[in-house]
Structure to design on (279 residues):
């Protein structure tokens, strides 16, 4: 018997391939035919027969798969997902669009809520996040925008408040903060600048008042406070001035009032207060 099967189509939006299979089936041998239907006949939206396997009992062609109330449609090639797969809510609204290659998610993934709003846009490579991944708090407003490399944060990362205002901007290398990270308040004013070296504070860190004036300056070495430590009043006058050595107060520490007058002097050695003098 000769079976003519038509219209196995890749609907990725980039390419359409139509495969025509001419299959010769022996009625005597009992060998399952290429494209044999698994269980009850299943048809897609167009009425085409789907859910078939090949001679090696591998899924092939167009398939519909269920996960609870969710329905997923896409193509198999040699038993592996390939091309565009689309998942639908129970009301047939699109929940997710994925790209597969050789069974692994590779390319763009889009996730929607039941109202049709885009919730997540991510790029994948061999099943791992690779490239920019964007999450949305409400329609049109970003919650985060993070760069990945083979599943690990790598590159610029941005976090946003619900209002859409930038909250944090940082750079990652191999999953760890590296370089300058900046924090902002809900008004968009810079409130902190931290320097990192592979996940640890390194160099000069600055914190600011809401008006943008400097509040605190600290220095770090391999995650430990080391070097000058200065705090300021909102009028820009010094409040506290001293230094750390390997995480411990060391040397002279001076304390001032808001007019700039010295009110207290302390002397430290290896973190221990040796003497103090009030003025």
């Amino acid at each position: 018997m000769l079976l003519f099967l038509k219209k196995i189509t890749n609907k990725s939006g980039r390419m359409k391939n139509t495969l025509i299979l001419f299959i010769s089936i022996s009625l005597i041998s009992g060998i399952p035919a290429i494209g044999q239907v698994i269980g009850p006949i299943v048809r897609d939206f167009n009425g085409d027969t789907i859910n078939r396997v090949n001679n090696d009992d591998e899924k092939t062609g167009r398939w519909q798969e269920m996960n609870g109330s969710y329905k997923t449609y896409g193509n198999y090639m040699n038993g592996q997902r390939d091309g565009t797969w689309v998942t639908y809510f129970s009301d047939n609204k699109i929940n997710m669009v994925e790209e597969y290659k050789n069974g692994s998610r590779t390319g763009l993934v889009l996730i929607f809520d039941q109202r049709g709003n885009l919730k997540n846009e991510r790029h994948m490579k061999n099943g791992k996040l690779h490239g920019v991944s964007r999450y949305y708090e409400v329609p049109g407003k970003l919650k985060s925008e993070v760069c990945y490399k083979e599943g690990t944060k790598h590159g610029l990362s941005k976090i946003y408040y619900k209002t859409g205002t930038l909250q944090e901007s940082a750079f990652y290398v191999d999953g760890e903060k590296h370089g300058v990270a900046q924090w902002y308040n809900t008004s968009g004013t810079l409130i902190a600048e931290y320097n990192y070296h592979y996940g640890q504070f390194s160099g000069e860190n600055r914190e600011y008042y809401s008006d943008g004036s400097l509040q605190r300056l600290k220095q770090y070495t391999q995650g430990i406070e080391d070097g000058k430590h200065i705090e300021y009043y909102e009028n820009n006058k010094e409040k506290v001035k001293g230094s750390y050595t390997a995480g411990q107060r060391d040397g002279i520490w001076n304390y001032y009032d808001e007019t700039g007058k010295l009110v207290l002097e302390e002397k430290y050695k290896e973190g221990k207060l040796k003497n103090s003098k009030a003025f």
About this structure: The first strand starts at residue 2 and ends at 5. Confidence is low (pLDDT under 50) at residues 1-35. Residues 74 and 85 are 4 Å apart (CA to CA). The radius of gyration is 31 Å.
